Amino acid sequence: MPKNRNTFSSLAAWRRRALSRAVHRGWRWVQESGAVTAEHPGPLRFGRIGAGTRLAFPQGTVFGEPWIELGAHCVIGEQVTLTAGLMPDLDLGPEPILTLGDGVVLGRGSHVVADTRVTIGSDTYCGPYVYITSTNHSYDDPHEPVGKQWPRMEPVSIGPGCWIGTGAVILPGAALGRNVVVAAGAVVRGEVPDRAVVAGAPARVVRNWDPEKGWQPPLRTPAPVPIPSGVTPEQLLALTEPGEASGPPGD
């Protein structure tokens, strides 16, 4: 191959690498600049946003912010929708409509639609694309288009410490207790007791906690081994690399 062709090819490859690095640096800057926090709320004026809470950029649809209260140290992923009221610019009264406790995590693409009261307890984690709504279409009149019929609204409450799997749907009137596990893709309505696992559409209890017998039916896998105190992220990463010992440092 002629020398000038090699030089041109190397120059083109260098330019592509440089452009790629610039694009990624620029996007990281946009993400940092567009994130919403208590110190940098941007155009969003929430009723409350706690210290350490962060809404990743780009945000999804957000309106009714004066009636939305976010606790401290919440993690709101990209493209998450948070709405209070049927539409923007409504006066919803003196009380909050949507409340997230401290440490709530909402995965990417999730929707929380609160046309009436929705509460999510502290330390509840939601996977991506979870849908939580206090409103559903009604179809009482078989002759009228469903979308034109007035929707039904019922409050939703999710207790603290829950885990809601990817793609789960929490319907109006749902009341989840403490430390409930909702399987991926489940559709939940009605009451769910504390420390239960629900799955299916409609969701049903498939496992619960008995103070004397433990989980019933029993878990099929052993409990995970907790990370020893004092282990750094670097040491933890080294444990997962091929050829490293399986025990913690110092064993």
Question: What fraction, in percent, of the residue positions are helical?
Answer: 10-25%
* % residues in beta strands: 25-35%
Summarize the biggest pleated sheet: 9 strands, mixed
Total helix count? 2
Beginning-to-end CA distance, first to last residue: 57 Å
Q: Which radius of gyration do the C-alpha atoms yield?
A: 24 Å
Mean pLDDT: 89
Q: Strand order of the main beta sheet, please?
A: 2-5-8-11-16-19-22-23-24
Secondary-structure-derived class: alpha/beta
Shape: globular
Order of helices and strands: HEEEEEEEEEEEEEEEEEEEEEEEEH
The total count of strands amounts to 24
Oligomer: single chain
Q: Uncertain regions: pLDDT < 50 for 5+ in a row?
A: 244-251
